[in-house]
């Protein structure tokens, strides 16, 4: 089986310390690791194959996050698990898991909910967006496999140190009372986000021409597994046609 060569050994202790500092301050950090052109191609081909075989178009407003829009094509974790041994192996890679754990400062645990574990998402049409939300599990490792230029949209926006009150998400209140940081990630970049305490969205695509394709590896922390499982938003996402 082909698999990416990820050169994780090259990341030294200082780089990890700096990544952790930023992760705590901003709720998001770009990993000091760029995919090689070969690895990016391999993962992009895998993601495109999955999208072609079982991607589903979503276009709805998520009630649990104040009606923020979801306009995208994606493949859920069950389909990824059934079709991609390579991505499952990468998700469980020991060195990768150790890197994530070192940056977050505690063990990164496998996401207990299979549909959310590995998700592939494509934004392509004008207006495609993954609207404001928090994730159900604390940690997201996002592999940006193909990114449009800045002017086309698809930028990641974050409000760190916020919490999802499911009875009153108050998303607009959060973006008024705290600064929003906006990040551009190029093709081949990988970032790590504390998604439970970071309100985030992907800015709508504003120009046609280049599809944005990512895969999101969700990991849980002990705090997540201590909580009663609540899959409301993922269930709403997967139920919506
Ligand atoms: O596309 C991204 O960069 C983030 C995606 C995201 O927030 C999610 O999958 O929950
Ligand atoms: Fe998210």
Can you walk through the features of this model?
The protein is built from nine helices and twelve strands. The longest helix has 18 residues, at 37-54. The chain starts with 12 loop residues before the first helix and ends with a helix. Helices cover 34% and strands 27% of the residues. Helix 1 (13-26) crosses helix 5 (94-104). Strands 1, 2, 3, 4, 5, 6, 7, 8, 9, 10, 11 and 12 form a twelve-stranded antiparallel beta sheet that branches. By secondary structure, the chain is of the alpha+beta class. The protein has one domain (12-222): q2cbj1_9rhob like domain (Jelly Rolls, Sandwich). Strand 2 and strand 3 (68-75) form a beta hairpin. The model has no long low-confidence stretch (mean pLDDT 95). Bound molecules: 2-oxoglutaric acid and fe (ii) ion (FE2). 2-oxoglutaric acid is lined by residues 119, 121, 130, 135, 140, 142, 156, 200, 202, 214, 216.
Query: Which fold name is given in CATH as the topology?
Result: Jelly Rolls
CATH architecture verdict: Sandwich
Structural class estimated from helices and strands: alpha+beta
The radius of gyration computed from the alpha-carbon positions, rounded to a whole number of angstroms, is: 17 Å
In terms of DSSP E residues, the strand content is: 25-35%
Rough outline: globular
Tell me the number of strands. 12
